[in-house]
Request: fold
Amino acid sequence: DAKTTQPTSMDCAEGRAANLPCNHSTISGNEYVYWYRQIHSQGPQYIIHGLKNNETNEMASLIITEDRKSSTLILPHATLRDTAVYYCIVREGTNAGKSTFGDGTTLTVKP
Amino acid sequence: DAGVIQSPRHEVTEMGQEVTLRCKPISGHDYLFWYRQTMMRGLELLIYFNNNVPIDDSGMPEDRFSAKMPNASFSTLKIQPSEPRDSAVYFCASSLASSGRRGYTFGSGTRLTVV
Reply:
C-alpha cells in the first residue's frame, strides 16, 4: 500500500470548516483513499473513501486532486465532538486485505 | 447490529500469566483484523483472517502471541506468557469484502495492562 503523509496536528474553530490534507504521491491506479478518525480511547471509525472523484456523505467531503497525489478531508461545520485523530490510508479498493495506519493528524476543535 | 464486540474492556494481569482477548465480529462479515495500539508504535496490524482462515500474521510480535478464529462469529487473541511490554489497547475490526460501504468497523478495544 502507498505511504501517506499528514500534518501532525491542526486546530479549527468550532463552526468553521476543517480541511485536513493528505499527501500520497506514490498512489497507484487501483488504490483508493480512505479516511478514518479515532476519538480518544475509542476504536477508529470509518469516515469516507474515494478513488478519483470527489465524494460526500453525511460526515464529510473528500476532495482528491486530479493527479491523485493528494487529497483533503473536509468537515464542513466542525464541532467540539470532531476533536480526534484523523487517519488517511491508501489501499486497494476492495475491502479484502489489510490497511496500514500511520500517525494521523490530531485535529483540535476549539470553541 | 451491535457492532464488533470485544471482551473484556479492561484486563490487568501479572507478568507471566496467560491473557485471552475475545472478539465477536459483525454478523456476515468475512474479514477480521486484530490491531494493537501504543503511544510509541501507533496502530499496528497483528493478524487478519478471511473466512476464518489466517491470511497474514506477519505483524504478530513473537511466538508468545497466537490468534484463532474457530468460526465466523468468534476470534481470540492469546498472549502466553504475558510481559509488561504487551501493555496496549487491542482492537478487533471486521469488514465485508463485497460491501458497498467499504470500511472496517472497529470494536471498542481491550485495554491490557501487564504488571
Notes: Chain A touches chain B through 24 residues (CB under 8 Å).
